[in-house]
Amino acid sequence: MIVTRLDEGQLLGRAGDLADLLVDTVDDGASVGFLAPLDRAAAEAWWQERAVAVGAGRLAVWVACRGARVVGTVSLAFADKPNSGHRAELVKLMVHREARGQGLGRRLLSIAEAAAIGAGVTLLHLDTETDSLAERLYASAGWSRAGVIPDYAASPAGVLRPTTIYFKHV
Hints:
It is a single chain. α1 (8-27) packs antiparallel against α2 (40-55). β2 and β3 form a beta hairpin. The chain has 4 helices and 7 strands; from the N terminus they run βααβββαβαββ. By secondary structure, it is an alpha+beta fold. It has a single domain (2-124), classed as Aminopeptidase.
């Protein structure tokens, strides 16, 4: 698999492929900010809206491709306030159901961490659904659990679930 960082134009060109990945992720029950069933057009529009942030350098997006197909993604959202330039948020780490169990999630996580270091970031943070498969990945990759917020976000099925906050010094 090839992992590539997208620029603004490339993100717009891949928005449909990323929408397919997002729909698959939500359909599989992952809590990534959307309710099921997720309309593909809405998912594509959401990705298109990220292009401006990519162009402005506030968001970095990577895609993992098997051939021409996008099977994974991860993003870094850089802080926009003067007192927080040292940190970034890891967002939207997703791996297609058909590509799971092959180390791709860990690889995408490592790529984002390395890019953060290269950008001068020293602290990363993220949130994820408590007791999810993603939570196990972050814990095993050296991320520290900061705490749990009850009823933080609705699952794709609309059920309020707790969220765990993680951080990592890089």
